[in-house]
Amino acid sequence: MPQFTPPVRDTRFVLDRVIGLDRYTNLPHFQAATPDVVDAVLEEGGKFVAEVLFPINHSGDQQGCTRHPDGSVTTPDGFKEAYAQFVESGWCTLSAPPEFGGQGMPHIVATAFQEYMISANMAFAMYSGLAHGAISALLVKGSEAQKAKYVPKMVSGEWGGTMNLTEPQCGTDLGLIKTKAEPNADGSYSITGTKIFISSGEHDLTSNIIHLVLAKTPGAPDSTKGISLFVVPKFLVNDDGSLGERNAVTCGSIEHKMGIHGNSTCVMNYDGAKGWLVGEEMKGLAAMFIMMNAARLGVGLQGLGIAEVAMQNAVQYAGDRRQGRALTGPQEPNEKADTLFVHPDVRRMLMEAKAQIEGLRALCLWGALQVDMEHAAPTEEERQLAGDLIGLLTPVIKGVGTDIGYKVATDCQQVYGGHGYIAEWGMEQYVRDARIAMIYEGTNGVQAMDLVGRKLALNGGRAVQAFFRVVGEEIAAAKGNEKLAGFAEALEKALGHLQGATMWLAQNGFKNPNEVGAGAYPYMQLTGLVALGLMWLRMVKAASEALAQGAEDVAFLEAKLVTARFYAERFLPDASGLRRKIEAGSESVMALDPEMFRAA
Amino acid sequence: MPQFTPPVRDTRFVLDRVIGLDRYTNLPHFQAATPDVVDAVLEEGGKFVAEVLFPINHSGDQQGCTRHPDGSVTTPDGFKEAYAQFVESGWCTLSAPPEFGGQGMPHIVATAFQEYMISANMAFAMYSGLAHGAISALLVKGSEAQKAKYVPKMVSGEWGGTMNLTEPQCGTDLGLIKTKAEPNADGSYSITGTKIFISSGEHDLTSNIIHLVLAKTPGAPDSTKGISLFVVPKFLVNDDGSLGERNAVTCGSIEHKMGIHGNSTCVMNYDGAKGWLVGEEMKGLAAMFIMMNAARLGVGLQGLGIAEVAMQNAVQYAGDRRQGRALTGPQEPNEKADTLFVHPDVRRMLMEAKAQIEGLRALCLWGALQVDMEHAAPTEEERQLAGDLIGLLTPVIKGVGTDIGYKVATDCQQVYGGHGYIAEWGMEQYVRDARIAMIYEGTNGVQAMDLVGRKLALNGGRAVQAFFRVVGEEIAAAKGNEKLAGFAEALEKALGHLQGATMWLAQNGFKNPNEVGAGAYPYMQLTGLVALGLMWLRMVKAASEALAQGAEDVAFLEAKLVTARFYAERFLPDASGLRRKIEAGSESVMALDPEMFRAA
């Protein structure tokens, strides 16, 4: 059976030494995040997820959720009790605003906790994760009355929340939505239609579930411009906050999925369910994007969380399992065989995991900091820069982060050999769970298109120029420092390829937008390579400074330097190939008649 | 529900135009493989697997195998009937020697059929696939009496066969085997021990199962040098061929696996089971390698077979599913949306699938031809060259082929978006089934080590030099042909990187074998890149010649040229990065103390 220990030491390294939380006490909500409080969140929060959520992860996968004939859904054994503890102990409310009962912690601190929760039990984490997305949308677009009515109990965890976008005929292309919203005399709407793939759509964890639903009002255009957002509670909520009648929204079935079996992914049937418009009519897509951008960062974090727990187990197994001898001669001659750790190719997989996980952790936490800054930094210039950077890198964190999650989970399963394929060892669940993160909240291909088709060009390319400036300046500064120069030069080459590819896309995309589309995926990968490279440059700098200052955790800090070197040697060389793929353009990608894909 | 059509057109292209089966009629067993016969195998064999085996693939996955309290195992509904048809219609005996009841067809023809069978139902194909491995070992190492007793009924499919290597404490490192073989007075042995992960270990398809088992005789050294191979029938076989008493070998449990649920993967308990030595005592490993090398080629073919069926379905879905509009403007304005085919990033995934699948098909069939040549070519020089090439490339076909299978299955699942994650669409099964092929018959990391640690150096590097000579000569010839020169030049660069990396390994591996180990995986990938590149060069040549000769299937042949160009633009650029990773050496790979992989 697998194990999990929250990687507090590494989180602290990023928060304390790389980012330096104490530099941000000028942001109002960072004042609550004193070192003691952050310690408590990481230590106690980590302990909670490891002791309460992790033990029901594998059993939850094996058992799955059950839909009963009356449409009710029960979660796997132990989920209900664990959820009650989760709510009671306050882990649900970390970053929500105090005026709605939240603890008002910085997003970066909540993100650190959220990573641990995903590692411990991704399917479980989705129940509250989806509610957080719904809360965000209500906070930004909801009326004061709606906020007062729904948000406090969603923040507390008493009620759940969902996002209802997908229908059988439409996923990415929300213009094809068929769900109807007919206005009632009392100002409410009657919602009718079928939504699919609704995570946490129905379950037994909360007394109510607040659905946010995309639908079309009568006469609305048959495109994304005709979509409105509605709030549709499972139980209507009386003015005194008590629960009223059951709304006409039911779970029609639970999807049989490859993974995340502990989360109930539902077909939701709306049969004239009562709903209320959130924000303006036909502005639903913009509201949905608020949820979606937050959700995309959360999904990128799923890549990290799964990769981390998979690696921890592969490391344990590599130390326990004895098989063969080191190429350089027996390392433990008194044993019948050496451990897997002696084998360079096992090391390669673990080092690749480590280099990507630690880079991605720094990127996710830095990304969360940009979300904090975007909203609360003291100057407009800082807020704009943060917003530009996180807007640009949200699809990268989601797309590259989840690709890493799947690849690392697969490689860590590989370390187990045949045992990795057997359910009881738990590794194959990580692969199956990690797989969904590449698909939902916009497939990774959609992320790539968001990056090259939308984010690059926004405001005349302001965001990507800002990103290049940040990376370029840090490289330039690092080249003057002998401890950093080697890494900085490797990163500079990769940055050069990214800048070259960006120029190529800008020059060729106008003539033929397919050039942009054909290069989108390798461009996203190349951006991710540079973004993780920037994080590694910062980690090298932080570790070198700490070592120079006589920090105690010498072995840990020196391992950072080795891992950075590995990243430079084993990942950054991909940059030139990625650039060449982008600059190859779209001709051979688009040339074939669809019929020619049929070899038969 | 998924679909499958045997890719006969593409197989024929490779057999007829790229390889040219008619050039090999000087090999005795190729004389039976007349064009009519090959046509019949592809058409009728393809029809059989599509109509009989494919319909029970998804249901077999969902139902799995069942072990009963008495230790018997039933396969999923329909498997028993389909197996009976499989045996009756003669598809079981294609390449087995006529003296044992086989049809004596060339291995290349049987391989073409085997690919279709895997696409249709990989779990089912494993039942006869494992038996073929056991047959090979008996034919080479068994006594005449053993061959006469066991092989004919294994060839006919009346009896099954298995390979029993793995034990709980050992997989790759067979020196750790604990299973004991105690000699009996009658010349037989009593086999006692536990074997795990035994594919097709117990089932209801055949009246007997012939287990080949690795075990140690008393006093044998505690290493791979002490291993002997035994034949242990489930039912003892009387001298008249009838079945005798039940042997003391039982299925202790069925493993709960990530995929290939239709195949019974068993824990096998040997409790003093009666067995007979195959070949010489303590030479069991060599005998096992006969099975293993054949099996590794078969596993590489699993990568191809799964990739092919996954792609066929993704292509179908991409043509059916309408979502969004082409970047260049609506392609079908009368529809609400264009098909997925208009989106460059969907095309990218399908082109990557196509380029790898068609390259891999050519490589697998060419590899099978080398097996034929190795045994039957008229001159010693030809036999040696064929043996060298297939020896070198067996780990590449297995390792790179199965990596491709998993990657392509994953990408084709990705084309489906959320539907790809849902069991009923069938795509997630392909990913789960494809996954095992990277693990069994030696993990892909073990393949990489076999390539760099063993195959490169064998006979003073004769095989790799032969491979470089073949690739180099074909490039040189192609550069003089304007139709081929572009591709040849791209391949020449990749070959240069492979040669450079080979030189680097040769120069550095003596000093420190970890340099070889750390570079093994990227070296295997680079070799695969060049090997598939060679196949694409040949396909470009074959297609160009056919077009020049006025062949009728113009669109198909022109699609080959486009796909080759895509391969040159989108895969070959990886070569320089792979070389840089190899030449980075082992220092950063091996530097960390295992403790430093624990971030917690």
Automatic annotation (TrEMBL), chains A, B:
Ranges for domain Acyl-CoA oxidase/dehydrogenase middle come to: 163-271
Q: Name one GO molecular function term.
A: flavin adenine dinucleotide binding
One Pfam family cited in the UniProt record for this chain: Acyl-CoA_dh_M
Role: Involved in the assimilation of dimethylsulphoniopropionate (DMSP), an important compound in the fixation of carbon in marine phytoplankton, by mediating the conversion of 3-(methylthio)propanoyl-CoA (MMPA-CoA) to 3-(methylthio)acryloyl-CoA (MTA-CoA).
Family listed: Belongs to the acyl-CoA dehydrogenase family.
**Domain Acetyl-CoA dehydrogenase-like C-terminal: start-end pairs:** 473-593
> Taking every annotated instance into account, which residue ranges of this chain make up the domain Acyl-CoA dehydrogenase/oxidase N-terminal?
80-158
InterPro entries to which the protein is assigned, alphabetical: Acyl-CoA_dh-like_C_dom, Acyl-CoA_Oxase/DH_mid-dom, Acyl-CoA_Oxase/DH_mid-dom_sf, AcylCo_DH-like_C, AcylCo_DH/oxidase_C, AcylCoA_DH/ox_N, AcylCoA_DH/ox_N_sf, AcylCoA_DH/oxidase_NM_dom_sf
Q: What is the protein name given in its UniProt record?
A: 3-methylmercaptopropionyl-CoA dehydrogenase
The cofactors named for this UniProt entry are: FAD
**The reaction(s) this protein catalyses:** 3-(methylsulfanyl)propanoyl-CoA + oxidized [electron-transfer flavoprotein] + H(+) = 3-(methylsulfanyl)acryloyl-CoA + reduced [electron-transfer flavoprotein]
Query: Known EC number(s)?
Result: 1.3.99.41
User: What positions does the domain Acyl-CoA dehydrogenase/oxidase C-terminal occupy?
Assistant: 283-451
The record, for Gene3D superfamilies, names: Acyl-CoA dehydrogenase/oxidase, N-terminal domain, Butyryl-CoA Dehydrogenase, subunit A, domain 2, Butyryl-CoA Dehydrogenase, subunit A, domain 3
What keywords are annotated for this sequence in UniProt? FAD, Flavoprotein, Oxidoreductase
Q: Which PANTHER family match?
A: ACYL-COA DEHYDROGENASE, BROAD-SPECIFICITY LINEAR ACYL-COA DEHYDROGENASE FADE5
Q: Which residues form a coiled coil?
A: none
Source species, domain of life = Bacteria
